[in-house]
Amino acid sequence: xxxxxxxxxxxxxxxxxxxxxxxxxxxxxxxxxxxxxxxxxxxxxxxxxxxxxxxxxxxxxxxxxxxxxxxxxxxxxxxxxxxxxxxxxxxxxxxxxxxxxxxxxxxxxxxxxxxxxxxxxxxxxxxxxxxxxxxxxxxxxxxxxxxxxxxxxxxxxxxxxxxxxxxxxxxxxxxxxxxxxxxxxxxxxxxxxxxxxxxxxxxxxxxxxxxxxxxxxxxxxxxxxxxxxxxxxxxxxxxxxxxxxxxxxxxxxxxxxxxxxxxxxxxxxxxxxxxxxxxxxxxxxxxxxxxxxxxxxxxxxxxxxxxxxxxxxxxxxxxxxxxxxxxxxxxxxxxxxxxxxxxxxxxxxxxxxxxxxxxxxxxxxxxxxxxxxxxxxxxxxxxxxxxxxxxxxxxxxxxxxxxxxxxxxxxxxx
Length: 414
Hints:
Order of helices and strands: EEEEEHEEEEHEHEHHHEHHHEHEEHEE
Strand order of the largest sheet: 6-3-4-7-5-10-11-12-13-16
Largest sheet: 10 strands, mixed
Strand content: 15-25%
Structural class: alpha/beta
Helix content: 25-40%
């Protein structure tokens, strides 16, 4: 097992809509992480400025509050000058009017509140020692301000809300194509958390932007939100995703390869879209995703007696019955990707860690003590898959066998 000493004792803000307050309050936009169980191997990273998409307004491609969407672009160079990595930002969702109104007062719903510069680390880094395969590519982070994984197409005039995620996606792609992406000889769409869902939902659409001779692939990090039963027997994620699809009018934007055979809410779940994706895809996920542990496996509403309160925040406090339940969740995760992983064109890295999002953090993507499977760091496995240098399918043994994990430990119960 990884050391339990908290070498990285600082508060990290993950851009995953993770603290959930039920009832009238919205899904918050951030989880405060107290520590990880490994040293940081941190990166200083390059700061990249925000570009607002001026042409978006005429297309009705607006953030929740009606402001312009945007992206951060760091130009490639040398051998990567015509290669493009497009990263879709994550950050939770809003599934009712009150939660979306909350979001529109933050960077998750308005470019007026977005950071003017973002630090590019992990797969976004411009340093070969931190990002060996993609460091000199054109790297773009498309900001997330629609609350619906770039799928919505509607509005709520009374609440002053614009659900325009699909139009934001299209406006961003149009602008990037004009910025030179139309000349790409290879392209990778990626994202983590809600951005991982976005990546899977838009993967084939992204592929369709390019000529058939362009190498195009997709990387979904921490996007495998499962349609699973929580500890009280309810399907928390299904109820939540159903709210998004109904409120935002997402159904029209979801892959028709799925909606032609399943209901629209089912097609917001990546596990139901993966089997029909034509584009080569890599699924990177932890088998014990801490976001799902806290919000859909053992949410507070399903645990009124607080039996899971310690386990939710620190895996070391999970008892044998709780670990057995979580092993069942891991089995569901592996079942969900079994058919997908049988395809030679796809890649897989599912490690038995209590974590969430591993491609954009330097310590988990590519550092001296990064997580490994088959002696491969995540960056190596993704690179091998993209460039077809060798097999890239890695599935971990059950917890607690992996000593390379960077587990996340949370401050207090959420």
